[in-house]
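task queued by scheduler; priority normal; single chain, no ligands, no partner chains; default sampling; output format set to structure tokens
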Amino acid sequence: MTQPLTARVGGLLKKIGSSLERKGYLSSYGLNAIAAYKGINIENIRISVDSLFTVWRNQGDVFAAIRELAYNVGSNGYTWENDKDPDKDARPADYAEMERVFKASGGLEAIKRRMVRDVHIAGNAYFHIQKAVSGKVLKLVPIDARTMQVVCKEDGSIVSWIQKVGLKTQTFKPEEIFQFKTEDDPNSPVYGLSPLEPVIWEVRTDIAALLSNYSFFQNSARPDTQYILDETLSDEQQEDVIRQLQDSLTGAENHHKALAIKGVKDVKTLTVNPRDMEYNILRRFTTEKVCSVLGVPKTILNYTDGVNYSTNDGQYRKFWEGTIQPLNRMVADALTRLAKEQFGVQESSIKFNDRHFDTEESVREDLKLGIITINEARQKRGMDYYDPADMGEFVDKAIIFNGTAAIPVVDVGQDPQPMAADEASGQDQSKAVKLFKELAQRYLYGRPKA
């Protein structure tokens, strides 16, 4: 029985791909793309990198979430640590060459932002390690992830990188490309997996719904309408009527506009299910999915429904500790490997500084318990210091508050009204005499009189 043309072509492409893969000229990533020709199978669908960038450019939640990731990673600054002795500072001479390349490449801030942005869109970030003829590294040049392809062997080792821009092709040696990824693609360990792939269909649906909504308002802000023309009109007259309808009714500014046109015999409005217009429900669902895969709470994207100060602080802390800090470590580790492999750094590693959270509630509790002073609390709140000369010495002393009174920590356990030693001794003697008299009266009360 003769196979359908699609099946035969698909089988042929698979054989060609298998042959190329055995020879090490094609990764399994490309093989799956060829095999997908046989039909729509979600296991073999390869989302193009260009499609991922299109989604990022056109969907607001995706753009905003990746922007927050790119600007928050490393936002607390960085330091070089001494690998041999963490208690000592790293030697500037050890990492000076890396700092020079950072500066020549636009600064670590620009490099870091590009790394985080591209890895969350395409799954990979690429930089060309540009060198002089002498072999000295000049700078890191970012490469569009949409233009990069890899040639690798069966064991996954990279033979070369290929960049294609239009009709131009450039080949790079493996050591000439700095690649950054956070998740390995199970179809090819050479490439990284984009976090947008699991939500690509939801995001595309959201974009399609927005376009449909836009078309609705452009079409006089009302559902589709069918205009039935007079059969006696010539083709030229029909085209003239259609042109008049388009010019007069298209656009939201023509909503509710009355119009009389010769040649229109009847007008029928096509029924539209009201559920078709419930875009807000769909948008909320898409927002939640995007925030979930990118690890960015909705509050970070300024969705404030059901949010107060307490929950907002908790969400931001969760975002930093669960998403930003792990990314900080991955970016720092990748840059440290680059520094050791390409720049001769021997004893130093990059580390992004952590952020410590002091919410209003925690600052207030620390102040009440005497853990911090009033001026330290004001500093954490971003306020100016109190001058002890004007406000008193206690603004710089730890004080315990119990709701009705306050006492300096240094005075805890001491008698708030100390008495002189002789005064205390006289009072104790008076108390003793009084006690003995009371005992004597009780004793005499119980004895018969003489």
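post-processing summary
- The CA atoms of residues 55 and 286 lie 13 Å apart.
- Residues 309-342 form the longest helix (34 residues).
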